[in-house]
Amino acid sequence: MSWSLLITIVPVVHQTLARAVVGKDRESVSDTNGKTIYYTGITVLVITSLFVFAAMEAKADIAFWTLLMISVMLYQALMERLYLPDPRYYIVTLLTLAAALVYVLFFRSVVV
């Protein structure tokens, strides 16, 4: 079990939950007038994490990657809550985050 497996599993879990909870006609924040704010926020999170990663001298541990995943997914859930009309959208994102955190908690000794 590794981060590459987690990165592969999270989108699959998210799409599966989205189809089960919301249906096939799932909207995206990028289809609303919150598109600019959404992409700006994601860009700021990624750039900030790159600076932190560089400051850590490439010795990023599980806490760094877990906090980055939590930050990005919580920001996505917030944007979905603010800009999408159906509350089920952000609930799917939060359920996906919970599933990813369970994975990290159970396999944290091997997720490096």
Sequence-ordered SSE layout with sheet pairings:
Blueprint: H1 3-21, H2 35-55, H3 62-83, H4 88-106
Helix pairs in contact: 1-4, 2-3, 3-4
Low-confidence stretches: none
Structural class: mainly alpha
Q: How many angstroms does the end-to-end distance come to?
A: 9 Å
Count of helical segments? Answer: 4
**Share of helical residues:** over 70%
Query: How many β-strand stretches?
Result: 0
Quick one: overall form? flat
Describe the biggest sheet?
Answer: none
Strand percent estimate: under 5%
Radius of gyration, in Å, reads 15 Å
* Overall number of domains: 1
Average of pLDDT? 83
Give the H and E element order. HHHH
Transmembrane segments: 36-55, 62-78, 90-111
Keywords: Membrane, Transmembrane, Transmembrane helix
